[in-house]
């Protein structure tokens, strides 16, 4: 079974503080670190590129694409989908599509929402992505979370239209009604892989979860998916390989809360080893290949 390995091409400080926070040049070195690690383990991945990062460092996407990785969209400004209007969301995503097209010569077919922010409040985003030409989204965390997640959403790849039509538990009835859907969302969703345990689904397959928890939790979730004949998805950010980022930014005068600085930098030193272990254990490919779109 081949799984999807995905990278959100973000800059840490901008992703955390948002708004007008400048994109730092650390993202360039961090992407190089990620590319070197992937090459060492012969893994091809999907990079969900943030428009603001690509705009500031236009050499990044051609470099990533030349290494054989898929380029997909992470939107333009990293605004949370549920904090935008459908119109501003459409503009944000379209701007990122244009940038990716200009820099790589190809339109992206995949999209990941900033901070998995397609939730019950923003299910209107699926039809808009389909309308913009996307073939897949990987934006839903099928968990009950405080900032993101749709508890009861399917745990494995599904078709948005089937899902909305079925009006399954957890989907507002209004969205499930055919007349509320326009245009037809011919779009696949690859939800984040979770670990089913004690009657709930738990997030373990990437980012801070892989930093803070031993890799055995991620491995268990991937194996659960495989037992059901389903691929898994693992996600990371280039900055998670940047062990000294938080302390060096603080020395340079940036100010983060004590708790934020600790929780965001803790165990970054373990990530390289954990990823090497995961790459040796499972097979990975870009999401587009895994979904066959
Ligand atoms: Zn992000």
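Sequence proposed for the structure above (293 residues):
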């Amino acid at each position: 079974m081949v799984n999807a390995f995905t990278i959100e091409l973000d800059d840490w400080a901008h992703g955390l503080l948002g708004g007008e926070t400048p994109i730092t040049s650390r993202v360039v070195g961090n992407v190089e670190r990620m590319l070197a690690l992937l090459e060492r383990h012969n893994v091809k991945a999907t990079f969900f590129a943030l428009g603001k990062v690509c705009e500031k460092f236009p050499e990044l996407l051609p470099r990533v694409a030349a290494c054989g990785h898929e380029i997909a969209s992470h939107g333009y400004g990293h605004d949370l989908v549920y904090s935008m209007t459908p119109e501003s969301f459409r503009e944000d995503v379209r701007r990122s599509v244009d940038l990716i097209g200009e820099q790589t010569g190809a339109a992206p077919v995949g999209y990941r929402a900033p901070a998995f922010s397609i939730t019950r409040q923003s299910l209107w985003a699926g039809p808009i992505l389909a309308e913009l030409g996307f073939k897949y989204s990987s934006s839903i965390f099928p968990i009950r979370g405080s900032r993101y997640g749709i508890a009861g959403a399917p745990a494995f790849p599904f078709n948005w239209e089937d899902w909305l039509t079925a009006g399954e538990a957890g989907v507002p009835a209004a969205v499930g009604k055919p007349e509320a859907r326009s245009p037809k969302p011919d779009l696949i969703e690859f939800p984040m892989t979770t670990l089913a345990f004690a009657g709930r689904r738990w997030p373990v397959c990437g980012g801070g979860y892989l930093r803070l928890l031993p890799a055995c939790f991620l491995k268990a979730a991937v194996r659960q998916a495989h037992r059901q004949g389903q691929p898994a998805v693992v996600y990371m950010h280039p900055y998670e390989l940047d062990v000294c980022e938080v302390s060096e930014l603080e020395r340079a005068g940036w100010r983060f809360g004590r708790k934020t600085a600790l929780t965001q930098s803790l165990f970054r030193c373990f990530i390289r080893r954990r990823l090497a272990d995961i790459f040796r254990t499972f097979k990975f490919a870009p999401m587009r290949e895994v979904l066959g779109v």
